[in-house]
Amino acid sequence: MTLALPILLFAGGTHAQDREFGGEIELVDPDVLRVCADPANMPFSNENEEGFEQELAEFLAGKLGRESVSYTYFPQATGFVRMTLGSNLCDIIMSYPQGDEMVQNTNAYYRTAYSIIVPSDGELAGIEKLEDPELEGKRVGIVAGTPPATYLARAGLIGLAKPYQLVVDTRVNNSAKAMIEDLEAGEIDAAVLWGPMAGWYAKQSEKDYTVIPLVNEPPGPAMAYRITMGVRAADQQWKRTLNVAIRDYQDEINEILLSYGVPLLTEDDQPITSSAVGEGASGSASEVDGQSAVDTDRNSADQAAPAAETTRSSDADGETDASESSSSGAASD
Prior knowledge:
The chain is of the alpha/beta class. It folds into 2 domains: 2-110 and 225-289 and 301-315, D-Maltodextrin-Binding Protein, domain 2 (3-Layer(aba) Sandwich); 112-213, D-Maltodextrin-Binding Protein, domain 2. It is built from 8 helices and 19 strands. The longest helix is centred in the last third of the chain and has 13 residues, at 236-248. Residues 272-333 are annotated as: Disordered.
């Protein structure tokens, strides 16, 4: 079920007019899983319900006894939280960086990193970090204002880099898609994107690419982040319900993410592969691939801004206490 935002704003105005975002009353619909989503931001979501957030929402709805899933769509740029979750038009943002104060975070259900995409059979296929000498003289695509730009500048590559916009209306522009198209056309030699986008677009390409999570950079802005689900501050029981679901169905969640090419990482930056789905992206997988690269051959089976890395400990109810250890970037309000 898909609901248009302008209609919802009109219909929901009276119902929610006396409630403030983060108030004391839980407003979660008990029958419908109401999801806040971007209408054109693959691999996360789109209006055709093809994103991994939407597959995950359908999965959770079944496990939580919801009768259906509905979506409130709004571009994930400035105003996203305020116009969706904050206006009580939906009850969950499926992907949100841990530590951002705009929402209340559930426990993290995956961890990933900014990644570089290179041709699988090219001279860059063996690189591990942006300072590797093989990148000297190469033109790298980069989304302006993201953490990898700092490392490109340190490596002396920023002068040749091709920048792409960070904040866009995804219904009109798509920086990730444009970057991959330039890579395919030979306009750039490598592309640096947020992990889920890197994995997805490499998988969709007719050319063979390798996606390398950038987890070997020197000290500086964080490149790997834990991703949670976002709920309203008042919705404490809802958060607990989701935390239990994350704990109980982590293996199934990982399988969904991996099927979209998301480069999942353990806490010690080892890749989680489809054969290693054991204890989840935020824990130690029972079996990991020792290689830092994730191959995305098109025949193989398989633009949220991250906020902060945290240290966590879980209690018996699935709750996680988080304390920020670093911060970079900001999520849309």
